[in-house]
């Protein structure tokens, strides 16, 4: 059977498309796109002519069946979303799972994703992070989900839309308190790219005072819970070494 290539596309700056992405998009038999109206101009920009099928959350099950048949018949296809890496808060999971179950090869063509792009320049710990996608739209549910994360030590990463970002910032402040550090990445790879970081209190005040900056696309990154000093010391050293260390403190 053929191969499905899962192709990442830019999250803003078109120059971020990879050589391999371009070669793949040009050479497959068809492209399944989240929104064909969105993908057409991208292909036009790179002078690629292709057959497009739509694959979005409302037709993914049915479309996946049709694409499976094509792949089993030996055609090669590509999957793209509107921006970034497919399946990362974008359609494609139903298709990829079906193809894996059917034994069809699925090959990733890596490239931009907002979560990794944001983390790579935010200045928060990245050794362990928890990607949470979008929080619930309603404040009650959002706060419940946030409360469940209070003790998570990994850096927490959220996607957010501009019309909810102020509400989400104030819920973060309410649940996690004023001191936790937050980094906001806005309009990554685009002309008005901006990083804002500080305590939850400071970042809230900044966006309330600069409501003109509450537009575009956002990634929110929250510092993880800090283990207490004693907990950390006792988990890392045995009591004897710990006592020695304390004696040497100024
Ligand atoms: N598949 C995409 C990826 O790999 O990042 C994510 C798609 S999701 C539907 C769209 C969300 O991703 C936006 O609401 C925003 O939170 C984030 N995002 C996408 N592009 C971004 C950018 N250029 N700057 C900041 N955030 C971005």
Automatic annotation (TrEMBL):
CDD domains: RsmI (cd11648). It holds the Pfam family TP_methylase. SUPFAM superfamilies: Tetrapyrrole methylase. Residues 4-203 form the Tetrapyrrole methylase domain. One of its GO terms (cellular component) is cytoplasm. Its EC number is 2.1.1.198. Belongs to the methyltransferase superfamily. RsmI family. This is Ribosomal RNA small subunit methyltransferase I.
């Amino acid at each position: 059977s053929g191969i499905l290539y899962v192709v990442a596309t830019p999250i803003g700056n078109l120059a971020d498309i990879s050589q391999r992405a371009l070669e793949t998009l040009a050479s497959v038999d068809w492209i399944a796109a989240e929104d064909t109206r969105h993908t057409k101009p991208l292909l036009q920009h790179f002078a690629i002519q292709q057959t497009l099928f739509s694959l979005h959350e409302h037709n993914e099950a049915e479309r996946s069946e049709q694409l499976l048949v094509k792949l089993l018949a030996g055609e090669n296809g590509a999957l793209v979303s509107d921006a970034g890496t497919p399946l990362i808060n974008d359609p494609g999971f139903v298709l990829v799972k079906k193809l894996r179950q059917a034994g069809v090869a699925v090959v990733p063509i890596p490239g931009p994703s907002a979560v990794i792009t944001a983390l790579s320049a935010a200045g928060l710990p990245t050794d362990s992070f928890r990607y949470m996608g979008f929080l619930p739209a309603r404040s009650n549910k959002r706060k419940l989900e946030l409360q469940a994360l209070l003790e998570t030590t990994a850096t927490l990463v959220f996607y957010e839309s501009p019309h909810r970002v102020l509400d989400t910032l104030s819920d973060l402040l309410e649940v996690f308190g004023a001191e936790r550090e937050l980094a906001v990445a806005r309009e990554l790879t685009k002309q008005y790219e901006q990083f804002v970081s500080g305590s939850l209190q400071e970042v809230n005040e900044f966006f309330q005072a600069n409501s003109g900056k509450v537009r575009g696309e956002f990634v929110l990154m929250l510092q993880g819970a800090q283990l207490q000093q004693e907990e950390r010391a006792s988990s890392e050293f045995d009591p004897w070494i710990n006592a020695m260390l304390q004696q040497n403190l100024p």
